[in-house]
Amino acid sequence: MTTKIYSVTAREILDSRGNPTVEATVILENGYRGTSAVAAGASKGSHEAVELRDGDKKRYMGSGVLKAVENVNGPINKRIRGTDALNQQGIDTALIELDGTPNKSKLGANSVLATSMAVAVAAAASQRQPLYRYLNSLFTSFHQTKLDRIPTPTFNMINGGLHGAGNLNFQEFHIVPASNKPFHEGLEMGVSVYYSIKQILQYRNAVHSVGDEGGFAPNLFTNMDALEVLMDAIRNTHYRFGVDIYLGLDLAATQFLGENGYLIKDKPIAYKPAEFIDYLVEIHNKFHLLILEDPLAEDDWDGWKKLTSRIGSDVLIVGDDLLATNPERLKKAIEMKACTAILAKPNQIGSLSEFMNVAAIAKTHDIKIITSHRSGETTDTFVADLAVAIQSEYVKFGAPVRGERVAKYNRLLAIETEMIAAK
Ligand code: PGA
Ligand code: ZN
């Protein structure tokens, strides 16, 4: 009995927003199996690999994934049956060739990635290895990386933009525990601040329903007010701002760039791009941000370069929509010094080996990595193992609440315990 693939099958399941997504199961000839499901974004960058949706308005408002499922059960199964699951790169290359397009628009990144991840899960099981260890061994052929620490979590505590039911333009307001805290301590800090934020919002009589990633989705006067809420909340705990806890932002700025510039509720008329850079520097001077993600639109390379030259030595300027976990865009950003960190999302590129290649390029050029979930998630915890395997500096898995977010944080707790025991 060998580690050859006996079959790969897929099905349509639901993500945390109730949207369909692809889950695949790989069974090996030796009986070991692996299952994995793909996440989905709401504020997608235009340079991401293509997520195949059926477009049939009679089912799930057009967002069904039956075609992607069919692609797994049909051509993908036919192509990779009988190949060795331990040869992850060979399988990913075969899938990329089978698709044949630069952005996986034929088979869909959802069908390719679900298969790619399920192959790794089955292979790890067959080797009787925890997934993060097996993935780390795969990553070693891209970049020698020793398993050492659990990435620092960055918690999305207030949800705006496309993720929140409130009225904020910036998409995510984060708190980040200091990197010298052990993971379990950082997680506890996250929960303390989360409930402290709830109290502040109740006191301010702001709506405190939650958004897609579990953070609060209040109505406030300005985006700046949300940062003040975070500061007040931290003050009400025993943690020290700037020592134990820092702040971070994901603006997802492409979403509020209009014809006249960046329009946000803090100012009645839109900021011209150059003014907006000054404004971002002002925010940074006031709140000493640790992380600043997608501060400018996804194709404003010159703006990114200017901002990075002004404050990039002091705050992580993180490319999400800018880079789309794409090796060519990352190389361009490195050459231009357009950012200092990458938000790495498996489904933006669409296969495990390509993701690892991007992570290796980042590491070689001292670009920090934040391994990230999507706003539409399942309870799959693959991304937590992956983050540890590549030893990314940070993980972004949402607020420390809601099953699909907590599943990943809990997986990191388990890995932390195991890694401590192994030391
Ligand atoms: P998305 O948002 O998953 O909706 O794209 C996450 C992010 O912008 O970081
Ligand atoms: Zn983002």
Give the name of the CATH superfamily of the largest domain. Enolase-like C-terminal domain
Order of helices and strands: EEEHHHHEEEHHEEEHEHEHEHHEHEH
Total beta strand runs:
14
Compute the CA-based radius of gyration. 21 Å
Q: What is the CATH class designation of the largest domain?
A: Alpha Beta
Structural class: alpha/beta
Shape designation: globular
- DSSP strand content: 15-25%
Kindly report how far apart the N and C termini lie.
Answer: 34 Å
Number of helices: 13
CATH topology of the largest domain: TIM Barrel
CATH architecture name of the largest domain? Alpha-Beta Barrel
The domain tally reads 2
> How helical, in percent, are the residues?
25-40%
Largest sheet: 9 strands, mixed
| Average residue-wise pLDDT | 97
Strand order within the widest sheet?
4-14-13-12-11-10-7-6-5
Please mark out the parts with pLDDT under 50 across 5 or more consecutive residues, or reply none.
Answer: none
Ligands bound to this protein structure = 2-phosphoglycolic acid, zinc ion
Tell me about this structure.
It is found in: Cytoplasm; Secreted; Cell surface. Its EC number is 4.2.1.11. Belongs to the enolase family. A hairpin with a 4-residue loop joins strand 2 and strand 3. The model has no long low-confidence stretch (mean pLDDT 97). With 423 residues, the protein is α/β, with parallel strands linked by helices. Helix 1 crosses helix 2, helix 5 crosses helix 6 and helix 12 packs across helix 13. The chain has 13 helices and 14 strands. The longest helix is centred in the middle third of the chain and has 21 residues. 40% of the residues lie in helices and 16% in strands. The radius of gyration is 21 Å and the shape is globular. The strands form three sheets. It has a nine-stranded mixed sheet. A three-stranded antiparallel sheet has the order 1-2-3. It folds into two domains: 124 residues, Enolase-like, domain 1 (2-Layer Sandwich); 271 residues, TIM Barrel, CATH 3.20.20.120. Zinc ion (ZN) binds next to loops. Zinc ion binds next to loops.
